[in-house]
Design brief:
Length: about 500
């Protein structure tokens, strides 16, 4: 079974999903000073590492590729990179040109004939010309053996817990069977990466394998948002272990792949005069209620990659504007679960200077929100999809349990975004609408910085006395202090905002 898991990983991944797991596999094999070089200035070297052997310290170079390698790929892509790795010693400050160099070509697939013959002739030529050791290949079967024997088997032996192992295979089976997974089940699963002790390289290797395996399988099923959530979980793991800056570009490169797929799918739909939801192809009477989720999640993914980009990307801005213009689902978030989706979309529009479009987003969602809170409100943060539907339909259909909800995290996000437009008249109109609908603004607080990774110690509070006037000072709220590990609350005085403060 473990062998099949590794085969699935190797068969599903993109090249950029191979670097981190392979680099930690090298550490388990006794290599050290391992660095991922992949990028514009790699000079034929995706990963470099050193290893002490009987004839001294060896400088290793690894060139990585995903998938099977045919003759044209080998000639056009692989040969130039291997030649560059052979003759060029530029790459990284830790690369030592004085050491004996060994080069390996690594693929998650196989070298197909006649690429094997071309590789053999390439080796003969560089041996005769440069007097170096032949370049060796590591292929899929070698990778499966190493990942199972050095990674998964020792890892599961180390964590000899049936519940732990069962959860892994249960999640794997659900994804393989294309079973629905909600965002919270994925976040709960990835939380174990954070709470487990991850100082050992074998634990890190397992995290990378799980993140990229599950994400790659979901990406192949075109479940882009869930695929991105696994990468978000990996980012949290790296941040907590002070590894994010080292691997940031690898994660962003892969996230770009996910978003590129999203954009291509959206553009294909629009070219065929369809929208993000095709009612003729849906399953079940409630599928129409998933339309807002798809709209908001699609905009969130594109907005997030836009925020991660160093410069304004006109293509990303254009597709965001097109989706907002053609779809209506984004106007109707089903619960507070979508508050951060709205926040990221709003911040992306601010980055692009799309202030009028931002006001449209805030205004239309506020109208929907106020309408809902004049009735029974939207379901809370952490609600399941079924609970979202039940809350939405309970006042209209018998058999559903109607729950009157007065507080809203989404309302707080909308008010904050309206304040950031720096338009007092617009802000006061949004604040007045929220006040008139009697919605109580709800805020979430992380009491200790380290709890940002594990979701523990998060509290919520609200201030129903907010003013509708545009102010430039913080509110009189609640400050949380820790004394001898005991949490105490006290009222805070007015504190000037460093720029332009929040509401009073």
């Amino acid at each position: 079974m473990l062998r099949r898991v590794v085969e699935d990983y190797l068969e599903s991944i993109k090249e950029v999903q191979f670097f981190l797991p392979f680099s930690y596999l090298l550490l388990l094999k006794g290599f050290y000073d391992v660095h991922i070089i992949h990028g514009s200035y790699e000079f034929g070297k995706d990963i470099i590492a050193k290893k002490d052997e009987s004839d001294g310290t060896i400088q290793y170079v690894f060139q990585l590729k995903a998938g099977d390698i045919n003759l044209s790929v080998f000639r056009d892509e692989i040969c130039p990179q291997l030649l560059e790795a052979t003759i060029n010693n530029l790459s990284h400050p830790n690369f030592d040109p004085k050491l004996k160099k060994k080069i390996f070509f690594v693929t998650t697939g196989i070298l197909k004939p006649p690429a094997t013959l071309s590789f053999q002739e390439f080796n003969n030529n560089i041996q005769n010309k440069f007097r170096i050791d032949p370049i060796q290949s590591i292929e899929k079967l070698d990778m499966v053996e190493d990942f199972v024997k050095l990674g998964l088997e020792p890892f599961f032996t180390l964590h000899d817990d049936p519940a732990f192992i069962g959860e892994f295979f249960s999640f794997y089976a659900k994804i393989k069977n294309n079973t629905d997974l909600d965002s919270f089940s994925i976040e709960i699963y990835t939380k174990r990466w954070i709470v487990e002790e991850c100082e050992e390289n074998i634990n890190k290797l397992q995290v990378f394998l799980e993140a990229y395996l599950f994400s790659a399988l979901l990406l192949n099923y075109r479940r882009y948002y869930q695929a991105a959530l696994f990468i978000a979980g990996l980012a949290r793991f790296l941040l907590k272990n002070n590894l994010y800056s080292k691997h940031e570009q690898v994660l962003i490169d892969y996230f770009n792949i996910i978003v590129t797929n999203v954009i291509e799918e959206v553009q294909t739909l629009y070219n065929n005069n369809q929208k993000l939801v095709n009612l003729h192809a849906k399953k079940g009477p409630l599928e129409i209620f998933r339309y807002p989720k798809k709209c908001l999640h699609t905009l969130e993914l594109i907005s997030l990659i836009n925020l991660l980009s160093e410069k304004n990307d006109s293509k990303l801005n254009s597709i965001i504007k097109e989706i907002i213009g053609k779809e209506r689902g984004w106007e109707r978030p089903l619960s507070d679960n979508y508050a951060m989706s709205v926040a990221l979309i709003g911040l992306s529009l601010m980055k692009n200077g799309e202030w009028n479009l931002l006001k449209k987003i805030i205004n239309n969602i506020t109208l929907w929100l106020c309408d809902r809170y004049e009735n029974i409100g939207l379901s809370r943060l952490g609600s399941s999809e079924d609970e979202e539907f039940e809350q939405l339909l309970s006042e209209y259909l018998e058999g559903f349990d109607s729950k009157r909800i007065s507080t809203s995290f989404l309302a707080s996000v909308l008010l904050d975004l309206s304040f950031m437009t720096n338009d007092p008249e617009f802000y006061e109109r949004i604040a007045n609408d929220l006040r008139a609908s009697s919605v109580i603004l709800e805020y979430y607080h992380i009491n200790i910085d380290e709890n940002a990774y594990g979701y523990n110690g998060v509290s919520c509070s609200f201030d129903p006395r907010f003013k509708r006037k545009f102010e430039t000072r913080y509110s009189k709220g609640i400050e949380i202090e820790l004394e001898d590990n005991k949490m105490t609350l006290r009222s805070s005085a007015d504190i000037p905002h460093p720029n332009q403060a929040n509401v009073e």
